[in-house]
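Spend some time on the protein that follows and explain the fold to me:
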Amino acid sequence: MTVQHMVWCKFKDDIGPERIAEHVAKLKTLPAGIDFVQKIEIGENFTDRAKGFNVGLIVSLPDRESLPRYLEHPYHVEVATPLKEDAELMAMDIEV
């Protein structure tokens, strides 16, 4: 079964739109940097239903065993570390 790794980002008030755009651009490179990432979908929230979370992404992985490999992958760490400094993150992982 495919795993969907979903992440919600709530950027700190002092993080401007240019910095958010940098994070989004970097997140879009995850499939190029991690060969087993099947797909990434990312976008900005456009409703008031997400309790202040303003960017969401869904990373498609081939199976449950690939999730820890993805989370520990050096390229993921490189992309996620500055994101964690600039935003509160919430994640959920499901099989579909």
About this structure: The helical segments are 17-27, 30-33, 66-72, 74-86. The chain is about 35% helix and 30% strand.
